[in-house]
Predict the structure.
Amino acid sequence: MIEHVLRDLNGIEIFGIISVLLFFIFFSGMLIWASRLKKSYLASMRELPLDGGEKPSNHPATHE
Amino acid sequence: MSPAVPQSTVSPAPATSPQIETFKYDNAIVRAFAIATVIWGIVGMSAGLLGAVELFFPGANLNFQFITFGRLRPLHTNAVIFAFVGNGMFMGIYYSLQRLCKARMFSDLISWFHFWGWQAIIVSAAITLPLGMTTSKEYAELEWPIKIAITIVWVAFTINLMGTILKRREKHMYVAIWFYIATALTVAVLHVTNSMVMPAGWFKSYSMYAGVQDALVQWWYGHNAVAFFLTTPYLGMMYYFLPKAANRPVFSYRLSIIHFWALIFVYIWAGPHHLLYTALPDWAQSLGMVFSIMLIAPSWGGMLNGLLTLRGAWDKVRQDPMLKFMVVAVTAYGMATLEGPTLAIKSVNSLSHYTDWTIAHVHTGALGWNGFLTFSVLYWLFPRLYNTKLYSIKLANYHFWIALIGMMFYVVPMYVAGVTEGLMWKQFTPEGFLQYPNFLETVVQVVPMYKLRAIGGTLYIIGAWLMAYNLYRTARSGVFAKDTEAQAVPFRSERAVSERGPHWIHRWLEAKPLTFTALSVLAILIGGMVEIMPMYLVKENVPTISSVKPYTPLEVLGRDIYIREGCVGCHSQMVRPFRSETERYGEYSKAGEFVYDHPFLWGSKRTGPDLHRVGGKYPDAWHYNHLENPRSTSPGSIMPNYPWLLSQKLDTTSLPARIQALRKIGVPYPEGFENGPAQKDLQAQSEKVAANLKLGMITADTNREIIAVIAYLQRLGTDIKAAPPSGTVAPPVSPAAKPNASDSHGQDVRATTTAAK
C-alpha cells in the first residue's frame, strides 16, 4: 500500500485569499494602465489589420 | 471611414530608398492549411453524424467494432478539434501573422514541416482511435508516441511563430498576435503536463497520475484546451479578419487589450468547474465557480467589441455571407461564454452535469463559434488566394442558412434532452422513492431528441459540402498566387522616439516580444499554479481506505478493454453525493477508492448509467448477455452490441509490461509478480468467472476478452464493502477535502453514507 503522507490542511483557505488578492491587484493595475493609454496610440493600433497586403493591386478581389 | 492604404503593396515608397525592403508573403502554406481545414472538417463532422445516428440506431455500426460509438466519439472530437479547428487556426495565423508583421514566415521549411507533421498526426489519430488505442482522457486520447509527435510539431510551430514576430518589420504587435502567442505557449504547457504517462508497450500507456489527481490535471487541461485551442486563436482571427471584412478598424482597441489580459488571466483559474461535487476541496470548487462567472466580463467585452466593429456597416452584413457567418460566430461565442459560467454555478451544475446539456453547450461553441468563424475566413480567403471572385454568393448564402438551421436543430433538442435527463434523474415520488428508478426510462425519453439532433447534424454537413464545392469552383476560376509581393520599412531602422506617459510601458512591452511572451506565460502560470497546487496537495490528502486494493491481473486487462472500447464516453464512474444518486447507484464515490486508477475513468456524460457501484449488482451471466446484445437484458437500450468480446482471445502476453508500468507509477504489485504469479492469478480468476457463467447456462472459454471485462465490472466499487482489516483505520478526512455532501434538495447524505470512513 502506498504510504500517503497526510498534511495538515488547516489554513489552506489562504490559497483562496491569495487568489482573490492576486486577481484584484492584477486587474486594478491593468485597468488603470489601459485607461491611461493615449488615444493617438490606440487609433494607430486599430488600423494595423487594414494595413495589409491581401489584395494584389492588379486584381481587385471578390464580390465586395 | 476609408480603408488605410496597404503600405506594402499599393503605395510603396520610392524603390530607390535604402530603407524599403521587398519581400513575399507565403500563400501556399495558407492554402494548404485551408484545404486541410475543409477536408478534415467534413470528415470530423461525418464521424460525429455517424455517432449521433448510433445513439438512436445502435446497429448502425453493423457490429463493426472499429466504428462503435465508444471508439467513434474520440475520433469525432479529435478530428473536429485538432484537425478542423487546428488546421483552421493555422490557416488564419499563417495568413494574418505575415501581414501583421509585414514579414514572410520565419522559415518555409518549418512551415511545411508543421503542415505535414500535423496532417500525419491527424492520420495517425484516425487509424489508432478506431483500433482502440486510447488513453481515454478527453481530448488527450492519443497514445504516447503521437503525443511526442504533437510536442515536436507544436514546438516547430512556436519557433515559426516567434521567429516571424522577431523578424517583423512592423514595430507594434497587434492584439491578434498576442492571442497567437498565448495559444502557442499555453497549449504547450497544458499538453506536456497532461501527457505524463508510463508506457506499457508502443501503443499502451498509463497516466502517471491516479484518481482524483488525474481528474484534476485532466480537467485543468480540458478546460484550458477549450480556452487556448478553441478560443484564443480564434479571437485573434476575429480581431484580424472582422475589421478586414467590415473594412473598418476594431471598435475599441483599449477594450481588446483588456479582453486579452483579462481572458488569459482568468480563464486558467476556472478549471475546477468541471469537477464540482467531487473530492476537490470546497474552496477550490468555489474559486473555480467564481472565476468562471467573472469570465463573462472579458468574454462579453470581446464579443461586444466584435459586434460593435460592425456599427455603421450592418448593411454589409446583409450582402456579404462572410460577414453573416462572422456575426453568428461572434454571437455564438457570446452565448456559449454566458452559458459556460452559468453551468459552472454549483446548483445549475448539479442538474446539468453528465446530461446532454453539456453536449448542447459545447456544440454552440463548436458549430457556432469555431465552425462559422472558420467558414467565414475560408470564404474571405479563397477569392484572395486565387485572385478572383467567390464563385457563388448565392450558394454561400444557402450554406449560411442551412448551417444555421442545422445548428438550431442540433442544440435545441440537446437542451431539451439535457434538462429532461437532469430532472428525471432527480425526480422523487411523494413517498420518497425515485420516480424513474430504471435509468433506461430516462434514455428512452430523450431518443426522439437524438433523432432531431442527427437531422441538425446532417444539415450542417450538407452546408459544409456546399462550401467545399463553392470554394473548389472559386479556385478553378482563378489563378493561385503562391506569393504576394510586399514592401515595408523595417522598424529597427527607425529612430527611437522619446516616449513619455503610461503608454510607453505598453510600447516597450510589445516591442519586445520575448518579454511580452514571458509576461503572458506568467499570467497563465499564476492561475495555473493556484489550480495546480491543490492537485498536489490533494494527492497527499486523499483519505486512504485500507480495503482498497490494486486490480487483479485479469481486472487490469478488463479495465484496459473497457478503456479501449471507450465505455467512459457513456458511463461515468463517479456517484455524486446527492440523495438522488445514492438511491440510484449506492454509496457516493470516495477519493480514496481511486488511488490505483491510472487513468481515472469518472467520465463526463451519462448516456448510460453510472457504473461505479455496478460490481456485484448483476450476475456474471447478465453481463455476458448484456454485452453480447444489450437489448436482450434491457429492452430499448441504445448501447451497441459487443459480440467481438465473446470471440476475441484475451491478449495476456502484454500483462507483464502492464504490471511493470503500473508498479513504476506507484501501484504496489510485488516485485516479480508479473513473471508467473500474475498469470496464475489470471487463470484462476478466469476459471472462476467461467464457472459463474456456467451457473447462468453459458459456456465460455476462459481466454476470451469478455471474461476480463466481466471481472473488471464485478470489481467496480466493491472494495469499500469489504471489511477493513482489524487495527487499520483510514485517516480522517479533512473538512476541506470533503466533498460537498448535500444534494440540490438540501438532503445531507453523509449521515447515511459513512461506511468507508
Q: What stands out?
A: The first helix of chain A runs from residue 14 to 35. Helices of chain A lie at 14-35, 39-46. The CA atoms of residues 17 and 40 of chain A lie 39 Å apart.
